[in-house]
């Protein structure tokens, strides 16, 4: 039976809930005991658990798990906002993904969440001027998760990437808060110019599976990009675009499309 620690529950309710869920998993499926203990119950904080998980997933013959863990722990210690943003991403995934029934799931099982957290460590390295290490983490995340996010891209909090296969986010892309996207989304460029060549995705946007948003364009807040669309021009706020090339087909249909995840057109 899960044991709630009142002090931890008060200070960090997200981490306490994950630990409670972990104890339930171990009780129900003892064969997962080693995995759950090493991934969650062994760690005093979610930051330490994330550092362990990132290192475990991205280590290889080229760089050991120990070194990657030290790098990740340094990032979380130096920038406490990384842990805060990770909690927001966890909660976003739990609230928006109907296949997510516990906060534990993204941390242990979901490659979209894990890939975004790996990107955040790489982005911290990039901002610290440690660009070759950042490129290494980008490379390994792409190889392991099938998610290629340039470490120079800027991505807000409360991000949910569902399924997360074949995601590409370019170097000068900017993604706001509370954005949701599905698999095979590309935030790409259209040329070799050195200035901003990737899109700006504002807060609350929902991007459907297989959509391509290309060039230095803006997708306005709380808009929807329909699955399979190719967006080449600015999208006004609170709109729905669809097609190749994408055109406005109506309003967004709700106040927070990235939260409701409603992708049906004609609403």
UniProtKB/TrEMBL annotation:
Pfam families: Hexapep (PF00132), SATase_N (PF06426)
GO cellular component: cytoplasm
Serine acetyltransferase N-terminal domain residues: 14-118
Alphabetized CDD domains for the sequence: LbH_SAT (cd03354)
Tree of life domain: Bacteria
Pathway the protein takes part in: Amino-acid biosynthesis; L-cysteine biosynthesis; L-cysteine from L-serine: step 1/2
Record GO biological process: cysteine biosynthetic process from serine
InterPro entries with a match to the protein in the record: Hexapep (IPR001451), Hexapep_transf_CS (IPR018357), LbH_SAT (IPR045304), Ser_AcTrfase_N (IPR010493), Ser_AcTrfase_N_sf (IPR042122), Ser_O-AcTrfase (IPR005881), Serine_acetyltransferase (IPR053376), Trimer_LpxA-like_sf (IPR011004)
Enzyme Commission identifier(s): 2.3.1.30
Catalytic activity, reaction form: L-serine + acetyl-CoA = O-acetyl-L-serine + CoA
Keywords: Acyltransferase, Amino-acid biosynthesis, Repeat, Transferase
Gene Ontology MF, one: serine O-acetyltransferase activity
Family the UniProt entry places it in: Belongs to the transferase hexapeptide repeat family.
Name the UniProt record assigns to this protein: Serine acetyltransferase
Organism, scientific name: Actibacterium pelagium
Taxonomic lineage: Bacteria, Pseudomonadati, Pseudomonadota, Alphaproteobacteria, Rhodobacterales
